[in-house]
User: Which sequence fits this backbone?
């Protein structure tokens, strides 16, 4: 699994799930694009004229404000909405209504849009990437920028990294980054101002990430933030009551937290369940290396009882994008017979996704006998189970 290519939210949550005690795990409150752009406007960062609608019936009124051509964007937290068809450029009201109905009917990595952003289309000559994010390895914030932006930013070369001291980003540092990006004239001045404003937003609103991708270069050289990604520090929300209702907690993450699971949603279709963060993470790698895409990271923890196994399986079977479930258990503290009994009970409750399992360790022969006659497909090794779950369906 390519760690650097993961969405920043996913990287943060996986790091938290793997390395932090359950009481200290980071939940990360991520704003929708339009919410992030409201913050951008508050701090003087230029964004296109836009309107938010929750029903295609509101498109006509929105277009009277925004004008044509316009861009219609699904408001979802999942990544990859452009590739999934969640963004459309429209040139007429009829086309806008048709596209808004289509987008509202999509499921993007299992998430259905509840709102659309109708935005003035912007003709631009170039795109950049700009973000300020928490670098946990440095224990400080850093400014990241590239000469290229958009959906393929992960593969862009020429990335500029500027560590930010605890006293904040200085104008001299922002100007240095602009020089390294070969910006000049009005583009350089706009970049320096936007970088300074973005750092002030992140610091004052106590965010973990503030990102503009792409930061467009218009024909006159001015810059415009065409997208926003803002992640708030959940631990600081008590100081920001205005954010407390912006992002209701993911019901599945709430259920996982109550059970004490380390659980992270991912964008794939294979739910991965195991005992021990290292084992689950290595299983994610095996799935990715085999050409599959994990739908979640779920660590049962050591010494898991039958009831915890049942709760975990009932949770992952609710994942809308999970088509198959992979269970990888090594029984040390965990009794494999408890795992098998939990698997058997949940499978026998009724319809659910196919389950592929590798159960190894103490009492494994007894555990396998408990699963005889069920639909659970058992394998001797983790690679065998991964090959089967990836190549089925």
Assistant:
């Amino acid at each position: 699994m390519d760690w650097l290519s993961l969405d920043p939210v996913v990287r943060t949550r996986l790091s938290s799930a793997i390395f932090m005690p359950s009481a200290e795990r980071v939940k990360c409150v991520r704003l929708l694009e339009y919410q992030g752009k409201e913050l951008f406007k508050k701090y003087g960062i230029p964004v296109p004229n836009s309107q938010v609608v929750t029903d295609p019936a509101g498109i006509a009124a929105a277009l009277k404000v925004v004008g044509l051509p316009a861009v219609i964007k699904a408001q979802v937290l999942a990544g990859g909405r452009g590739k999934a068809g969640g963004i459309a450029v429209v040139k007429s009201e009829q086309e806008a209504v048709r596209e808004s109905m289509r987008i509202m009917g999509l499921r993007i990595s299992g998430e259905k849009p509840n709102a659309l952003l109708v935005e003035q289309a912007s003709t631009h000559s170039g795109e950049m990437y700009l973000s300020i994010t928490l670098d946990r390895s440095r224990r400080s914030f850093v400014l990241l920028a590239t000469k290229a932006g958009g959906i393929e930013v992960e593969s862009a070369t020429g990335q500029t990294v500027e560590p930010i001291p605890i006293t904040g980003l200085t104008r001299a540092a922002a100007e240095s980054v602009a020089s390294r990006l070969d910006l000049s004239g009005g583009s350089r001045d706009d970049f320096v101002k936007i970088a300074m404003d973005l750092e002030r937003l992140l610091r004052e609103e106590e965010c973990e990430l503030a990102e503009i991708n792409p930061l467009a270069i218009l024909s006159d050289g001015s810059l415009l933030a065409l997208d926003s990604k803002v992640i708030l520090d959940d631990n600081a929300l008590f100081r920001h009551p205005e954010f407390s209702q912006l992002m209701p907690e993911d019901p599945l993450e709430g259920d996982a937290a109550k059970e004490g699971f380390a659980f992270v949603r991912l964008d794939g279709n294979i739910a991965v369940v195991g005992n021990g963060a290292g084992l689950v993470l290595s299983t994610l790698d095996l799935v990715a290396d085999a050409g599959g895409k994990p739908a979640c990271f779920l660590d049962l923890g050591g010494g898991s009882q039958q009831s915890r196994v049942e709760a975990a399986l009932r949770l992952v079977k609710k994942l809308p994008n999970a088509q198959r479930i992979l269970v990888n258990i090594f029984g040390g503290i965990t009794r494999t017979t408890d795992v098998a009994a939990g698997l058997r009970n949940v499978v026998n409750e009724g319809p659910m996704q196919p389950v592929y399992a590798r159960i190894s360790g103490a009492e494994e022969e007894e555990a396998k006998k408990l699963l005889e006659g069920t639909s659970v497909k058992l394998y001797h090794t983790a690679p065998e189970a991964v090959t089967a779950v990836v190549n089925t369906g």
About this structure: Residues 116 and 372 are 49 Å apart (CA to CA). Residues 19-26 have pLDDT under 50 and may be disordered. The radius of gyration is 23 Å. The chain is about 35% helix and 25% strand.
